[in-house]
């Protein structure tokens, strides 16, 4: 929608023929976005070759853990000069790779042809054309500027950044912190708790980023603090909502059963922790989320343990 509103011709690839058909005939996706009419410049197909044909930008937004498998199928039909754009906020399980790394590897694309769009961009608010800012990151600033122009609309204001690592980490880790804040909300805890989790969550994200060569300033920008605020404040966030259900006492299986859309942090909390261990970085909040979500630790026990960690200086 944003790309079409900015004047691009857009072809969506859809898995199900009925979804492509609905988009082409009624300009709606009744399953995922009922009530929203897509702009004229958007059409859909189930044929990846047709979707990719002549594409200046190829925007990838499948659930992170399915990217490798999907992209392996699409890679042969991608134009050799297309810029591959990730909007995914996850880290691959098993390899602990960022999505841009998976893209580079599977599509054999150099870093100059891989970009990221991230920031406080809750889907429903974007579909409502409510004003939002975002970050368009690419190692090659000229490519970031081209993508910035391609997605700049009166309601969507993208800023460029060359710190791809920091932008991706900001997006992936905020989902984990969003789960933590949701759990706290579900437990009936207050705004002090929420603010403390968000701030210390950003501190551990920055710590990880620094160890991976990211620019620390990225984390106080839209890809870091901005996205963290949106996810941790909004009932529209799937990660936040997932956490709230857990905090209210639902089991993991019950929570999964009532969650239809992708909550990336549920899987990525494990790969973020894996990444942290590979870099020798302590991430106590991420570890706590993994314990609650995957190791069955009761939230109240996890909270007590978190609060009784040894006292530290704030910078550590
Ligand atoms: N929804 C949001 O507000 C935002 C989401 N993102 C990121 O976008 C990425 C995708 O999430 P959403 O589109 O929001 O999730 P979603 O759950 O709304 O949609 C996922 C789409 O992927 C399809 N899908 C599921 N499994 C698949 C598979 N194995 N192969 C191919 N397609 C598959 C689904 O049919 C659906 O169309 C995530 O990494 C998320 O973090 C980023 C910014 C905002
Ligand atoms: O990333 C998002 C907003 O920028 C959306 O967050 P959720 O995936 O938790 O809904």
From TrEMBL:
Record protein name field: Glycerol-3-phosphate dehydrogenase [NAD(P)+]
An example Gene Ontology molecular-function term: NAD binding
Taxonomy of the source species: Bacteria, Bacillati, Actinomycetota, Actinomycetes, Kitasatosporales
Alphabetical list of InterPro entries matching this protein: 6-PGluconate_DH-like_C_sf, 6PGD_dom2, G3P_DH_NAD-dep, G3P_DH_NAD-dep_C, G3P_DH_NAD-dep_N, NAD(P)-bd_dom_sf
Protein's job: Catalyzes the reduction of the glycolytic intermediate dihydroxyacetone phosphate (DHAP) to sn-glycerol 3-phosphate (G3P), the key precursor for phospholipid synthesis.
Pathway membership, UniProt: Membrane lipid metabolism; glycerophospholipid metabolism
GN (gene name): gpsA
Binding site residues for NAD(+): 123, 238
Organism: Streptomyces liangshanensis
EC class of the enzyme, as a word: oxidoreductase
Enzyme Commission numbers on file: 1.1.1.94
């Amino acid at each position: 929608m944003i790309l079409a509103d900015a004047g691009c011709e857009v072809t969506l690839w859809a898995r199900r023929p009925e979804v492509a058909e609905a988009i082409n005939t009624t300009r709606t996706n009744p399953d995922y976005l009922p009530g929203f009419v897509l702009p004229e410049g958007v059409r859909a197909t189930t044929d990846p070759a047709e979707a990719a044909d002549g594409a200046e930008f190829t925007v990838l937004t499948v659930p992170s853990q399915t990217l490798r498998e999907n992209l392996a199928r699409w890679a042969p039909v991608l134009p050799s000069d297309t810029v591959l754009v990730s909007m995914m906020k996850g880290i691959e399980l098993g390899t602990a790779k960022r999505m841009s790394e998976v893209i580079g590897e599977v599509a054999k694309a150099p870093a100059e042809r891989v970009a990221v769009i991230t920031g406080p961009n809750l889907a429903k608010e974007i579909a409502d054309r409510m004003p939002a800012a975002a970050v368009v990151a690419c190692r090659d600033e000229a490519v970031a500027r081209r993508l910035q122009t391609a997605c700049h609309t009166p309601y969507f204001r993208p800023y460029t950044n060359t710190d791809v690592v920091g932008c991706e980490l900001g997006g992936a880790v905020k989902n984990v912190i969003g789960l933590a804040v949701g759990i706290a909300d579900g437990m009936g805890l207050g705004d002090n708790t929420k603010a403390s989790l968000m701030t210390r969550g950003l501190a551990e994200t920055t710590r990880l980023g620094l160890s991976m060569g990211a620019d620390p300033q990225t984390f106080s920008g839209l890809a870091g603090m901005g996205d963290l605020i949106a996810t941790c404040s909004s009932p529209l966030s799937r990660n936040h909502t997932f956490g709230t259900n857990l905090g209210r006492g639902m089991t993991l299986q019950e929570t999964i059963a009532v969650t239809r859309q992708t909550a990336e942090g549920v899987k990525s909390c494990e790969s973020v922790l894996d990444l942290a261990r590979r870099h020798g970085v302590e991430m106590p909040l991420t570890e706590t989320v993994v314990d609650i979500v995957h190791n069955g630790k009761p939230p109240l026990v996890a909270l007590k343990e978190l609060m009784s960690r040894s006292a530290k200086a704030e910078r550590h």
